């Protein structure tokens, strides 16, 4: 009679390298950014990158004459306002201080409301000592218009400015109607996506040949930079770095220092970068130690 085979112990599970849990990653990032904000830590300081295109945008706006018409294609809404506002606010302060006539047009339902909010903040932020700040307080009224239909209706701004840029022409005084109906001196495209700026450059600019300055998110910068190099864009301000650099250029003309939120934003951004570097180092150490134990 054959003997029953002896039971064989199951094989030991293979050793796996320890994993850095996702919860700890979020906790480390929250501590690195939240604690400096709560404790008002003043460092580490860093200088954001001064990208080409910011100086050109500043020079273009600085050369505008008072009462010049500037069309602002507001192609972002509250969903992306936190990033784009960082770049758009100093540009808007500069436009107000130049005492130009602003006509805001947007193909997004929430665009005009977002524009009104930022322009109100820019007016209050520009109310500092200096002749240019006084000009911002007494600047011309701003007109707002919502164009349903997406990018397909942008060409209307070039063919019939009065119809595109005036939401209710009957309610405006005659001087404002004539001022907005004339050819604009500059177009500022404020967009979260590169496609929105490209739509204006490809559909509207060939019709009226108006200079264009783009204020966009950092992710749209690489896509739009060839338009700057070719001369289709007169200036490019992108992301927090672009807004910070533009504010530094604006300081000598406004007789005031940069707002405190700009400096604190740089500090918090640097702490976030340090936290990401720490996560990368810890993750590589965990993988290295786990691999060494399994050999």
Brief sketch in words of this structure:
This protein has 295 residues and is α/β, with parallel strands linked by helices. The chain is 54% helix and 11% strand.
Topology at a glance:
Elements: H1 22-39, H2 54-62, E1 69-75, H3 81-97, E2 101-106, H4 111-125, H5 131-137, E3 143-146, H6 156-159, H7 161-165, H8 174-181, E4 186-191, H9 194-203, H10 205-208, E5 212-216, H11 221-230, E6 235-238, H12 239-254, H13 260-294
Parallel strand pairs: 1-2, 1-4, 2-3, 4-5, 5-6
Helix pairs in contact: 1-13, 3-4, 3-5, 3-12
Keywords:
single chain, 295 residues, alpha/beta, Rossmann fold, six-stranded parallel β-sheet, 54% helix
Q: Please, could you describe this protein's structure?
A:
This protein has a domain at 54-257: Rossmann fold (3-Layer(aba) Sandwich), CATH 3.40.50. Helix content is 54%, strand content 11%. It contains 13 helices and six strands. The chain has a six-stranded parallel beta sheet with strand order 3-2-1-4-5-6, with helices on both faces. Strand 5, helix 11 and strand 6 (235-238) form a beta-alpha-beta unit. Helix 3 packs across helix 4 (111-125) and helix 3 (81-97) crosses helix 5 (131-137). The longest helix has 35 residues, at 260-294. It is elongated and about 100 Å long.
Decide which structural class fits the backbone: alpha/beta
| Alpha plus pi helix count | 13
- Gross morphology: elongated
Q: Indicate the radius of gyration in whole angstroms.
A: 26 Å
Report how far apart the termini are: 44 Å
């Amino acid at each position: 009679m054959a003997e029953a085979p002896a039971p064989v112990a199951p094989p030991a599970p293979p050793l796996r390298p320890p994993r850095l849990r996702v919860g700890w990653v979020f906790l480390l990032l929250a501590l690195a950014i939240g604690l400096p904000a709560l404790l008002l830590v003043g460092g580490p300081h860093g200088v954001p990158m001064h990208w080409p295109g910011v100086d050109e945008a500043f020079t273009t706006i600085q050369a505008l004459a008072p009462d010049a018409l500037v069309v602002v294609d507001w192609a972002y809404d509250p969903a992306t306002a936190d990033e784009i506002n960082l770049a758009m606010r100093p540009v808007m302060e500069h436009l107000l201080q130049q005492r130009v006539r602003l006509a805001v047009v947007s193909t997004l339902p929430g665009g005009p409301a977002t524009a009104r909010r930022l322009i109100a903040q820019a007016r209050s932020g520009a109310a500092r000592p200096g002749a240019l700040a006084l000009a911002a307080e007494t600047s011309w009224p701003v007109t707002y218009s919502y164009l349903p239909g997406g990018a397909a209706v942008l060409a209307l701004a070039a063919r019939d400015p009065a119809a595109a840029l005036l939401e209710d022409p009957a309610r405006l005084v005659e001087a404002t109607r004539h001022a907005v109906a004339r050819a604009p001196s500059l177009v500022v495209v404020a967009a979260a996506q590169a496609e929105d700026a490209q739509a204006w450059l490809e559909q509207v600019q060939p019709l009226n040949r108006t200079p264009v300055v783009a204020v966009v998110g950092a992710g749209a910068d690489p896509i739009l930079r060839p338009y700057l190099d070719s001369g289709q864009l007169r200036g490019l301000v992108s992301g927090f770095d672009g807004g910070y650099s533009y504010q530094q250029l604006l300081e000598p003309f406004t007789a005031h220092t940069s707002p405190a939120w700009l400096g604190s934003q740089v500090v918090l951004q640097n702490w976030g970068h340090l936290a990401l570097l720490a996560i990368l180092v810890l993750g590589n150490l965990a993988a290295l130690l786990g691999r060494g134990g399994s050999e």
